[in-house]
User: What shape does this take?
Amino acid sequence: MEFRKVFCEELRKLMLADERIVILDADLASPNGTMPLYKEFPNRCFNVGIAESNMVSIAAGLSSYGMIPFIFTFAPFATRRTCDQIAVSLAYSNQKAIIVGTDPGVTAETNGGTHMAFEDISVVRAIPRVMVYDVTDAYQLKQAIPQMLNYDGVIYVRVPRKLYADIYKEDYEFTLGKSDILKHGNDVTILSSGIMADIALKTIPYLEEKGIDAEIISLNTIKPLDEKTILKSVEKTNRVVVIENHSIIGGAYSSVAEFLSTTRPTLIKAIGINDEFGQTGKYRELLETYELDEKSVSSKIIEFLKKAI
Amino acid sequence: MNQLIQTAKEIRRLTFECIASFGSGHIGGSLSIVDVLTVLYFDQMNIDPKNPKKENRDRLIVSKGHAGPAVYATLAHKGYFDKKELYTLNKIGTNLPSHCDMNKVPGVDMTTGSLGQGLSCAVGCAVASKIKKDGAYIYAIIGDGESQEGQIWEACMFASNKKLDNLIVFLDYNHCQIDGTIDQVVDCGHFEERFKSFGFDTYSIDGHNLQEIKDTIIKAKQVVGKPHMIILNTIKGKGVSYVEAMGVKNHSIPISKEDLEKALEELK
Ligand SMILES: Cc1ncc(C[n+]2csc(CCOP(=O)(O)OP(=O)(O)O)c2C)c(N)n1
Ligand SMILES: [Mg+2]
Assistant: This one.
């Protein structure tokens, strides 16, 4: 299912039961799929127009009244454009909101460089009280949404609007803040962020061909990191690869490196965007351009393991 | 004027072909500014397509950067680059990403796409032009939906405070944004009074009447000590009846071969 459909359906259920929930959009309600909620809950859905910073501070006011705002806009506008409002109106003021930044990284596709946020995680991760959740698949998102209500702080949810690969099955159980071991292995720990889980899983045949038995973990939240699971895996493999649809500065790789460098120094290979800007293209084309497709990723891992003995 | 009318038609054709070559894009907001682009590039602006970075040139910043295809069609028709390039729009590796890009496209004076920023950039250019005393005019085109961004009004306050009479701004008042009409989303009515109260020399005209656009620019240039705001009353998708009829739904749409044929037939 499309991620935006999941959001709309789950929020609909929650809004029926919980009057605190309010929806905020900035003229992207149709692309982000929240439009049906406006019909059903006209008093709790607000389209503020093209005014993202305004929207975030409005959310803070709503929150101070005990409401729980869900804010929707494209990832660059949800973070870069509204950074100070997130920091001061929301986080520093101890308010609560869920900020949904859609089409992060290469999933911005043909909206091109201006819309392609590779630094959205870096921007918000440094702000205290902000949780960063890079959504892995639709089954997971469905379970995550009700849990979001319970977090005392700001959650930045990084999620494409449309359809991406399913990673989990219907019976999967998710706890927001925890990672998932997608495959057990002994030779290297591959940590994937968000939809890059799909790419990580697709490297398996390439790695097996070289006799590499990888452990694959989907991080899910970049902040907090599921330190226990990561550490346990690294104790076994001694080598880590992080794959992210984000700049290697300030995102999943950085978080993992910050954690491991002080707890258990380990060689880490970063596979992400190397301090570059985005550009226009389709998802697959962009993966190839930035060498984030399974073939490029596999050969980088193989090279890394040759050196990192 | 007949010549200009033909030019506008040709630019509409090229804009449509350009977007059709990719298969989808921001057709509505592109077509609504073709007439002002025509008057600027083919009548008013001091520019040289052979020397896009010419000193003392007039500049245009299209703050509603998603109208890139119309800007590129205009520039190609003016001779800034080969028209064939238009058919690479938005494809991987292209020099023509659909949002205006100053580093990739000769003739584009500022990169835009994140709404609300371009007008402030134009204000910066207008200040620099005053410092350099180069006699240039700085033009900007903003959207009506875009004007919901606070930054637009911050730019306006500063522009009038600094008496930037070399700044000529056009508001593409097509009454549409993504989620509905402007009135449905956040009513921004009384644009003329608002800009006037922000210290602008204001006009409200038919944004598809080339003569009126030209006359108004000439008139605005006579007014000293104030920045100028020309409100263009426009139709989103202007020039192609089926696109016009879609109204708010024509913001960014797929365009098939058949759609293109239909459009070209009308733009003959
Ligand atoms: C800061 C920012 N927020 C949101 C968007 C997404 N967006 C692109 S076009 C658009 C609507 C623009 O409406 P308007 O300014 O009226 O343009 P026009 O009708 O001329 O196409 C939106 C919301 C954006 N590009 N930048
Ligand atoms: Mg508009």
